[in-house]
Amino acid sequence: MHHHHHHPAAVLESAAPAADPPPPPVLDPSSLRIHIPSSPHHALPSTPHKRPVVMTSSSSSSTPTRPSPSPFTPPRRRKVPAPAAPAGGAAARYLLRCLHLRLRILLLISLPSLYFLSPTPAILPHSLLADFLSAAAFSCALLLLLCLSLPRLPFALPLPLPLRRARRSPILWSIGSSPSASATTPTTGHFVQVYSNGDVYEGQFHRGRCTGSGVYYYYMSGRYEGDWVDGKYDGFGVETWARGSRYRGQYRHGLRHGYGVYRFYTGDVYAGEWSNGQSHGYGVHTCEDGSRYVGEFKRGVKHGLGHYHFRNGDTYAGEYFADRMHGFGIYSFANGHRYEGAWHEGRRQGLGMYSFRNGETQAGHWQNGVLDTLCTQNFIPGSPIAVNHSKVLNAVQEARRAAEKAYDIPRVDDRVNRAVAAANKAANAARVAAVKAAQKRNPNNGDDLPLSVV
């Protein structure tokens, strides 16, 4: 599965459903675009999540092992006692050799102290700057003396702070839940899983993954109720988003796939076939303003054969390509006029005939929606402006055949209704599983086995 996502917050409408999908754009005869948003991937509850785990060293690893002595190890040097100090100058030299470091430090300290011993300002004139420099030099020398002398003193001083920084335990990254939680928490049954991004899953688990029936609550954005297989939506279910959109139907591998109904929060509805999260196949898209398209879809847009009823009363039946009227088709206006012929990217282009409601016609070649060349009954060889009327009639026949096929496309209402009924049933089973998981998590119950936060 959703956080993200992800962690369930990876494969669905936004594995977490993030915000509701945008409404389809306003439809008009010149640009007919119905956009069925693809299903964003939810972060699934089974998605691995990185979490820091401090690995404490065991006693065997923390204590370094002493290597075995080598046969070539040189013999240890015996500690020979120091000879007695000779008398006279030799004794003085021995003393100086032992205390040479301390004598140097004492000389360093004595330099700034000369200031305090001077009886008159003739040696070093008194001033605020001189007082500050002398005090700073004396403090630095004293600090240096302490740092160098303390480790060499014959007696140990109880220091409150260690001289060396203690080693920190290494921080390692583990995939999934912490080892302690996974070792003690059962992975099969009804449980409640809480995720660090605020998402919650209540339902059935199998081997640590969401499998069976369950409800997944996306933090402040929506929920999914239905079937699960190996941590992904699979089977039938119901998705609901915070703004009011809802999908009921089939899923496969975490995406809308099969038959289902998507109701946008704007009032638009798509009912039909789905493939990998997008409308694909035969379906019906009804807009809030009353316009309606019945036909083929490919990867979320109109593509193939279909007929469209516009909100102003116009209708089009024929071929679509990449969400636009393209190929051959018939456009009937609400006032009784009609165009039959070729189309290109939503405009009349190619050979075609325009019929008025009084019976008059205009036939020929069209360019960008405008008739630029009239047809003639007799073909004139070599004439760049003449269009043979028989070719126009052939284009009209192609448009009529495409329109008939567009009205004869198979209907999927029955399959969609069966998928919606199965989705409602799966959602009810998921709610029952969620109740069982919540009861098992209740502290008043002896079977309290909540899952850890991941």
Automatic annotation (TrEMBL):
It comes from the Eukaryota. Keywords: Membrane, Repeat, Transmembrane, Transmembrane helix. GO terms for cellular component: membrane. This is Histone H3 K4-specific methyltransferase SET7/9 family protein. The chain crosses the membrane at residues 103-124, 136-159. Signal peptide: none annotated. Residues 9-18, 56-65 have a biased composition (Low complexity). The keyword Repeat applies. SMART domains: MORN. Pfam families: MORN (PF02493). Residues 1-85 are annotated as: Disordered.
